[in-house]
Amino acid sequence: MIKQLRVIKLTWIVLLILLLHIPATWAAELKCTYDANLGEPFLMRLVSPYALSDVTITWLNRQVPLKVIYTNNRHEAWMLLGTDVREVKPGIYELIVKYYERERYWTLKHNVNVKSKSYPTQELRLPQAMVTPPKETLKRIQEEAKLVANAINTITNERYWKVPLTRPVNGVITSQYGLKRIYNGNPGSPHRGVDFRAAMGTPVHCVASGVVILVGDHYFGGKSIYVDHGNGIISCYMHLSNIGVKEAQYVEKGEIIGHSGQTGRATGPHLHFGLYLLGHAVDPMPLFQ
Ligand SMILES: [Zn+2]
Q1: Domain of 12, in residue numbers
Q2: pLDDT, mean of residues 185-189
Q3: Measured in angstroms, how far is the CA atom of residue 194 from the centroid of ligand 1?
Q4: Are residues 139 and 110 both part of a single domain?
Q5: At residue 19, does pLDDT exceed 80?
Q6: What single string gives the DSSP state of each residue in 146-182?
Q7: Among candidates 228, 216, 217, 223, which has minimal Cα distance to 279?
């Protein structure tokens, strides 16, 4: 009888020890929204009590490797995702997350319901040359478009970005993201960034740390800077009066990278700020402090 009691007691102790060693969650968990408005960014997190490696996500046919960090006794990989008001239709889109954990590869699939969002219309009056550029500028415009496309589709593995982002300038918003624009009476493509009021020469701050991947004086964007924050997250700053950084230069979050102006296609001094996630221009406003 005493021997039996001792066995039961021992069993309980063994069970208790086992229980204490069970992690809070059994396996990696994908934390991501089920609903997202068209054009709005959202954060996805892969969280695991076990070591994670080789984390790759696929979103809208683009693949990106993610760095894993160890924080609060958990292994985590983060990514900002979103849809581009110009390119994506409302509907269900699949996010695929692949990773290596406990000696094997795993795949998680998650549906995101991208819901329609109506954006206001804005009529603009511009010099006709800026709406219908003269023939001799078409080659230049095409070359610049190629450089910009390369820049906004850059995917690098280092993660410099962090949310919330720092505001590039303090001014109020004069044109929000997603505006349906009508130039001199003709519909153009929607506004793929945010315009901030900024007097000529206002210091422009980088919204997150990163590496400058493109600077130039472009026909439409004027003096522009593109910064790679890693994982396919790129920010851009247009219509500047001066550029204070060089390509391949590392910049810190909040660092002054240039000054606002009115270069390129601009009706007045302002800063056009754009945020691209895997090549998709999203509304940056939900990500600011
Ligand atoms: Zn703009």
Answers
A1: 2-115
A2: 86
A3: 6
A4: no
A5: no
A6: HHHHHHHT---S-----SSBPPS--SPEEE-TT-EEE
A7: 228
Tell how far the Cα of 129 is from the centroid of ligand 1, in angstroms: 18
Same structural domain, 147 and 82: no
* pLDDT over 70 (residue 273): yes
How many A from CA of 160 to the centre of ligand 1?
A: 25
Report which of 289, 288, 286 is spatially closest to residue 37, judged by C-alpha positions. 286
pLDDT at 21 (0 to 100): 55
Question: Do 95 and 151 belong together in one domain?
Answer: no
Q: How far is the CA of 191 from the centre of ligand 1 (A)?
A: 6
CATH label of the domain that carries residue 64: 2.60.40.10
Distance (Å) from CA 89 to ligand 1 centroid:
22
CA angle 18, 20, 25 (to 5 degrees): 100
| Ligand 1 geometric centre to CA of 272 (Å) | 4
Q: Which of 97, 115, 133 is the last residue of a domain?
A: 115
Alpha carbon of 175 to ligand 1 centroid (Å): 7
Lowest mean pLDDT among 124-133, 155-164, 167-176: 124-133
CA of 169 to the centre of ligand 1 (A): 14
In the chain, the number of structural domains is 2
Per-residue pLDDT, 124: 83
What separation in Å is there between the alpha carbon of 240 and the centre of ligand 1?
12
